[in-house]
Amino acid sequence: MADRHEERPRGAAAPAADDGPVGGGSPGPVPGAPGTGPLDSGARVSPASRAPEAEEAAEEAGTPVEDMEAKIAELEDRWLRSAAELDNFRKRIARDAERIRTDERDRVVGEWLPIVDNLDLALRHARAADAAESAIIEGVRVVRDQAIGLLARLGFPRHDEVGVPFDPKTHEAMGTVENTEVPAGTVVETVRPGYGEGRHQLRPASVIVSTAPG
């Protein structure tokens, strides 16, 4: 039997192909549509899932009150250190100033010693002078005594004692002499008085020391 072909009029459209399952029905899911695959980048995360991370970050950062207390403690420590350094600086300046004053006083007073020595020398030579000059001699003695008193008030007492044991801390031996009336090592004459004592000694006394005969 020969195949029969249904002839279509020229220009007629071909029948449409079936797009869905036989019998109709809804189309299948479209790939990439919302709700059909993994969450896209714009999806919101549940607050409950972020709570542990937020609490951990807050614990590490500390509360504002704790941060403020830590800052105050740091500032107090810096202030105490600065106050201690300032106090030490003031004490050091005071010590340096006192040392400078003492050194300058010693230097100035030392300049007076030759004047006092000359007054002593003048009185020594004036002992044989005429009685008419006794008033002048007495005037020189008064000036000399005033100078000695001033040195003593400044902390430099005069040392011209005789009959005392020789002390290398306060005496400078200028010579020796045999003497049977006093023990050996006794100061029998002061050639030049000394002034001051200890750390504030301007100069030792220049003396003659006794020795045993023989």
Automatic annotation (TrEMBL):
Organism: Sphaerisporangium siamense
Disordered: annotated span: 1-67
GO CC field: cytoplasm
Similarity-based family: Belongs to the GrpE family.
Protein name according to UniProt: Protein GrpE
Summary of the function given for this chain in its UniProt record: Participates actively in the response to hyperosmotic and heat shock by preventing the aggregation of stress-denatured proteins, in association with DnaK and GrpE. It is the nucleotide exchange factor for DnaK and may function as a thermosensor. Unfolded proteins bind initially to DnaJ; upon interaction with the DnaJ-bound protein, DnaK hydrolyzes its bound ATP, resulting in the formation of a stable complex. GrpE releases ADP from DnaK; ATP binding to DnaK triggers the release of the substrate protein, thus completing the reaction cycle.
Classification via SUPFAM superfamilies: Coiled-coil domain of nucleotide exchange factor GrpE (SSF58014), Head domain of nucleotide exchange factor GrpE (SSF51064)
Domain of life assignment: Bacteria
UniProt biased composition (Basic and acidic residues): 1-10
GO terms under biological process: protein folding
